Amino acid sequence: MNGDSRDRILIVDDSVQNVQLLEAYLTAAGYEVLCAHGGAEALEIVDGDNGGGSLPDLIILDVMMPGINGYQVCRRVKQKEDTRRIPVMMLTALQDLDDKVKGFEAGADEFLSKPIDRMELLIRAKSLLRTKHLNEDLESARNVIYTLALAIEANDPYTSGHSERVSEYGVMLARWLGLTVDQQEIVRNAGVLHDIGKIGISETILQKPGPLSTKELLAVQDHPAIGEKICKPLRSANLLLTVIRHHQERYDGDGYPDHLSGGDIPIEARVISVVDAFDAMTSPRPYRPPMSQPQAIDTLRREAGKQWDPGIVTAFIDMLAADSPPDAEDPAETAVEADQV
C-alpha cells in the first residue's frame, strides 16, 4: 500500500518511541513524514515554521500530551483558514466515548486507538488523504467557476459588480437575521454565482432595450436551472445548488423554475431574492434608468408577501436604515427589475 509522493504527514506525539514507530510505518509506505514531539512544536510546523516546506496533507495527533494537548492542537488547526482542511487523525488509548466526542467537537476527522495496527493506520490515512485531494480538486473547480462568473459579468457594463454586491448585501442580511455561519457562507457563494446561468442566454436578449417577448422571457427564466448545472462540481454544493436554482421563486408561488412558495423556498434563496432585486432595481439597465433607493424600498414593501418574504423585506429595510450597505460605483446605482430578469 504505497502512499502518493505528494503526501506529507505530520506525526505529533510526546513519546519518541511512538513517533519512531509511526514514522517507520509511513515512510515504508512511501509518505514524506514530519515529526513533532509535542503540541507547541506541531503548531510551529502548521503555522509555517516547517523549514520552508509546504503544509502537511495529514496530521496524526496524539491526544494526551503535556502542555498543549491534542484537542487544543486540533482546535487551533481547524480554526485557521489556511489549515482547517487538513485532515486530523487522533491517536488515543482512551476508550471513553466522551473523549472521542470531545475530539470530534475539536474538529478531528478520525480516531485510531492504541496500540496502533499498521494496516489499519495505512488504510485510514489513505482514505483521509483521498478525501482531501478530492476536496482540493473540487475547490479548484469552484475557483474556475467563480472566475467565469465574474468575468462574464465584467463584460456587461449594466451588470458589472452586481453579483459581488449581491453577495455582500446577502451576507449582511443573513447576519442581521441571525443565520448560522454556514448559512452565511452559502449566501455569500450564491450571491456570486446566482446569475452564472445567464451564460446560456443570448446577449441580444440580456441587453435588449425594450420589453421581452414571451419566448425571450422563457429563455431568461432558464438561467437558474442552467446555473445549477454549471455549479454541480462545487464542493459541498447541495444547498448552494438549491439556492442558485430557487433564487427567482416568488413567495406567492408564481416564480420559477419550480413554483415554490413561502417556507418551501430555502431561506438562503429568499435572502438572495430580496437583495438581488434591490441591487437590480437601483442599477441602470438597457431598458430603464435606475430607481432611487427610496423607490426601490417602496417596491419591496409593496410586493412583500407576494414576490418576497415579508419578514426578510422588513429586516432588509431595517438593516439599510441602521447601516449603509456596500456601495456600487455610484452609491445608489444597483439591481434587476423584479418582474423581468
Map the helices and strands.
Elements: E1 8-12, H1 16-28, E2 32-36, H2 39-46, E3 58-62, H3 70-79, E4 88-92, H4 97-106, E5 110-113, H5 118-154, H6 162-177, H7 181-193, H8 203-206, H9 214-220, H10 223-230, H11 238-246, H12 267-281, H13 293-303, H14 310-322, E6 334-335
Parallel strand pairs: 1-2, 1-3, 3-4, 4-5
What's the short version?
The chain contains 14 helices and six strands. With 341 residues, it is an alpha/beta fold.
Number of domains: 2
**Tally of helical segments:** 14
Q: Provide the succession of SSEs.
A: EHEHEHEHEHHHHHHHHHHE
Which runs of at least 5 residues are low in confidence (pLDDT < 50)?
325-341
Structural class call reads alpha/beta
Largest sheet descriptor: 5 strands, parallel
**What level of helicity do the residues show?**
40-55%
- Proper CATH architecture of the largest domain: Orthogonal Bundle
- Beta percentage is 5-15%
* CATH topology assignment of the largest domain: Hypothetical protein af1432
Radius of gyration: 25 Å
Mean pLDDT: 84
Count all strands and give the number: 6
Name of the CATH superfamily of the largest domain: Hypothetical protein af1432
- Please list the strands of the largest sheet in the order they lie side by side: 2-1-3-4-5
Quickly name the level 1 CATH class of the largest domain: Mainly Alpha
Molecular shape? elongated
Give the N-terminus to C-terminus distance in angstroms.
Answer: 55 Å
Record keyword descriptors for this entry.
Rossmann fold, alpha/beta, 341 residues, 8% strand, 14 helices, 5-stranded parallel beta sheet, disordered C terminus, Hypothetical protein af1432, elongated, single chain
